[in-house]
């Protein structure tokens, strides 16, 4: 039962070996790493220069200087399950402070909760202003 499969495998092995020994780039054949990695920032209308020999050329444009595509950047707040435990612990600590009405929390419960209302208002105003500046900066 396995004999025909074994024979077919033995006949296919030389074809696979020939396909793997197809010619590749000079650096890959020598097995040596590239000697130089060059990062180039392009202006509008320029094209990326070709790499030569043992050189790698990485191109970026002024509009998108990052390698991560824009649709994958700044996707909003990170879900709690994907955050580090330190961030989760800090969030739980802050929630507990607000629930307990501790000072600087702007909570209606507790003796010192009212002292943080001005601080919370200022932080909200600053965040709103930063968001407006970012929106104005992204509009051409």
TrEMBL record:
It comes from Sphingomonas kyungheensis. Keywords: Signal. This is Secreted protein. Residues 1-19 form the signal peptide.
């Amino acid at each position: 039962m396995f004999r025909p499969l074994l024979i077919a495998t033995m006949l296919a092995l030389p074809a696979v070996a020939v396909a793997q020994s197809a010619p590749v780039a000079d650096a890959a054949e020598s097995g040596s790493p590239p000697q130089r990695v060059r990062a180039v920032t392009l202006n509008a209308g320029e094209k990326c220069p070709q790499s030569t020999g043992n050189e790698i050329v990485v191109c970026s444009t002024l509009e998108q200087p990052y390698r991560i595509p824009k649709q994958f950047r700044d996707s909003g707040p990170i879900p709690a399950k994907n955050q580090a435990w330190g961030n989760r612990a800090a969030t739980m600590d802050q929630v507990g402070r607000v629930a307990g009405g501790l000072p600087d929390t702007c909570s209606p419960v507790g003796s010192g909760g009212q002292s943080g209302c001005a601080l919370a208002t200022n932080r909200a105003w600053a965040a709103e202003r930063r968001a407006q500046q970012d929106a104005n900066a992204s509009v051409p």
